[in-house]
């Protein structure tokens, strides 16, 4: 099983990166092949809305940036862990850019792959937030889950890591075990 992590945070070693990588570690422990990318290392532009990816050709997205590497990785992945910090009650701008660029995945370039694949790609959404109440942005998280389901992802889990204002993720007791478990159960499902 191939699982990729997308860390849509400007911090390479922040809370979101920690959580995504611990989930991947849990999956790796169960034999999954894992890799992660951090937006801190990537140059990815917003969707231009040119619709070239939907013009009937198989060229996919025409923007020549680091998203092309992610398209290849996405094409190959059985499961995706998408992590984002909560910014102003929503996903980060990086996560939104990534999500918008998924529009090209519905293009002919990807359709042979999806026709062959009977199962949908699994997706785990991971949000980290400063606020200590994990229910604070519940409506937004539910909406986001629904939106990714509409994009044909099999959303397995929405992990909300709250209380980052108080102390960073790696200092929160029990989080390590919880994250590893999210990863390992993704493989055993
Ligand atoms: C611009 C900005 C906006 C934020 N907005 C919120 C928010 O609306 N609610 C919240 O609970 N935390 C908010 N936070 C805190 C982050 O979500 C939190 O610190 C997160 O864990 C950071 O993740 P990172 O370490 O991966 O960057 C905000 C932080 C920043 C920088």
Automatic annotation (TrEMBL):
List required co-factors.
Answer: FMN; [4Fe-4S] cluster
SUPFAM superfamilies from the xrefs? Flavoproteins
Output the Gene Ontology terms for molecular function: oxidoreductase activity
Q: Does the record bear Flavoprotein in its keywords?
A: yes
Q: Where is the NADPH-dependent FMN reductase-like domain?
A: 1-129
Query: What keywords were assigned to this record?
Result: Flavoprotein, FMN
Do the record's keywords include Protease? no
A Pfam match = FMN_red
Mind telling me which InterPro entries this protein's record contains? Flavoprotein-like_sf (IPR029039), FMN_Rdtase-like_dom (IPR005025), ISF_SsuE-like (IPR051796)
Q: Which PANTHER family match?
A: IRON-SULFUR FLAVOPROTEIN (PTHR43278:SF2), NAD(P)H-DEPENDENT FMN-CONTAINING OXIDOREDUCTASE YWQN-RELATED (PTHR43278)
Provide the family line: Belongs to the SsuE family. Isf subfamily.
Q: What is this protein called?
A: NADPH-dependent FMN reductase
Q: Which organism is it from?
A: Methanoregula boonei (strain DSM 21154 / JCM 14090 / 6A8)
Q: What is the lineage of its organism?
A: Archaea, Methanobacteriati, Methanobacteriota, Stenosarchaea group, Methanomicrobia
């Amino acid at each position: 099983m191939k699982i990729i992590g997308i860390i849509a945070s400007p911090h390479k070693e922040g809370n979101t990166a920690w959580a995504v990588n611990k989930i991947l570690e849990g999956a790796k422990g169960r034999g999954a092949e894992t890799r992660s990318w951090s937006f801190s290392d990537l140059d990815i532009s917003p969707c231009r809305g040119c619709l070239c990816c939907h013009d009937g050709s198989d060229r996919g997205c025409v923007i020549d940036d680091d998203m092309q590497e992610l398209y290849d990785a996405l094409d190959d992945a059985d499961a995706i862990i998408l992590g984002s910090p909560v910014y102003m009650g929503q996903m980060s701008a990086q996560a939104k850019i990534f999500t918008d660029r998924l529009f090209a995945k519905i293009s002919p370039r990807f359709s042979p792959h999806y026709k062959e694949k009977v199962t949908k790609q699994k997706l785990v959404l991971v949000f980290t937030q400063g606020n200590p109440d994990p229910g604070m942005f519940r409506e937004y998280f539910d909406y986001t889950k629904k939106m990714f389901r509409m994009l044909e992802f099999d959303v397995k889990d929405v992990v909300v890591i709250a209380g980052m204002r108080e102390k960073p993720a790696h200092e929160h007791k029990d989080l390590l075990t919880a994250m590893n478990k999210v990863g390992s159960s993704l493989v055993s499902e």
